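Hi W.,

Here's what went into the run:
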Amino acid sequence: MPVYENIVSSVQKRKGFPVPTITAEDKEAFEENGFHVLRAAVSTSEIALLKEAVAKMLVTPSEHPYAKNLADAPDIATNPPDNPRGVWAGFNLQLFDDIFWDFAYHPQIALAVEALIGPDINLYETASIHKVPGFPNNYRDWHQDSEYSDPQSNDRNVTVITFLDEMDGESGATWVVPGSHKEGALPHVLPEESLSSKAKEVQDKHLFAPKGVAFSYQPGDVLIFLVRVVHKSGANLSNESKWSLAYNYCRADTLDLARVNGFVGAYLPITRKGAIYRPGTTFLP
Ligand SMILES: O=C(O)CCC(=O)C(=O)O
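Here's what came out:
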């Protein structure tokens, strides 16, 4: 079945599951804080299907041609049976299962993003994050995602974290620094800690740490934040694996000025004219 057929049926099945309203107050708070929390956006059955696809992806044999999209974190802890290679982050998820394509068009999320940064949003990137039990507090420390997407013609690009497991600030939830997007692009450096993702973090991270906040999330809750918001991965002090999806969307006029984005599906239309985009509908009245 073509992907758009799946999306149509998913929207139809979701009748009676109304698209969340983003109020003028929500939008104002989003511009002030740089983030918005969407509760219960993804249904329990959708979460179960996504977790099944993630579980399959995590056992991709290392010799598979696409395995290089799965970044492992070899030294953190003993790898749990549900993540035998200790994969920390997955990229280009659509290569692993069509459900990850469908999910980019999830109506609750896509239309909320459209309301926050639209009109008209495009896909920027798809990724997943997996925190094994014992995942350290500063493994993926304070940073701005715009460090990886700049230069762009404007800052209307958001990271959307969908929590697949129950999480809080001590069990894997993302931490954010409210209002930090207003500081513009901050200098980034490589981490000094020996046990780290080796990915760049803000130079003066000690200034941001005391201002960070994290919330409690249920599976299906979503955190949406602007790419200039300083954020980090929370530690996972629980004894369970904690998984989330991290998709990025940008406004259709957010142009990539240096061709930095080589992700699968980059810049495909997701919403147009306030509705989920489907090929073939553009010219209909
Ligand atoms: O763990 C998270 O939720 C955030 C991960 C993150 O910020 C990143 O990998 O860039």
